[in-house]
Predict the structure.
Amino acid sequence: MSTGTENLRLRGVGRRYGLTGPWVLRGVDLALPARSLVRVEGANGTGKSTLLRLLAGIDAPSEGRITGRRPRTAYVPERFPAALPFTAAGYLVHLGRVQGLRTADAADRAHEWLTRFGAAAYARTPLAELSKGTSQKVAVAQSLLAEPELLVLDEAWTGLDTEARGELDRAVAERVTAGATVVFVDHDPRRLAGTVDTAYRFEGLGLTTAPLAALDPRVRVEATAPPGTPLPAGLPGAPAYTLAADGTASLSVPAAHSDALLRALLTARPPWHIGGVAPVPDPQPHRSTTRDGDRTP
């Protein structure tokens, strides 16, 4: 799948608010390759959210240019505007229609994403009555409805419970695998460690390349239960997993959470039988990426 994000470039971009306001960022050159995961770092107030708004097309540059075809873009803002006259499902269906989906397709995808994020029970709840965590699930769900080519996430994991954070991790991986570009900011320096292709850090008003965070060591747990037994909800460490029809599960979790995961499986009802525990081999190292987004061997 070709997304067209290979051609989206920021050239000498600057942004300030008002004709004489201070510059928030300036002289930013950035290329976004397709099928990539890009992290943006920096202290509070250094321009991270402003850059994401520029990438999402919410704001326009005060100077410089953004060139290339605008990909189908979705954006999760740092603050979700919950005081809107919709229910959770109604809001998602409305935005799905705005993004070009038929009503029936938008309703199906709304149900799918609310279910994946554990918020299906709140589908008919007015947005203004949702908790902060459930509101954030709706905010994340709307960004995934139309399979965006460019997904922009501003602290999207904040406010989510452990299981929902793991689901967002999986959704990000799915979009990148499908050929999309995902750009994100998150306060946790380990977020998506080992899967990020490129990281940038704000220094002054501009961007510099940043080192990639090392991958936490992971452990693989093989477990079995009677066929048809679902995995317990809220497993520690938000493990990645596969579950076969014969009741065999293979779970991968950061090593720091492995003991808690084993306890949760062994004390579940019905209990799971642990067939094996082993370290996950390190993946192949990432190829480095230049400032302009061109990969090097």
In short: DSSP finds six helices and 13 strands in the chain.
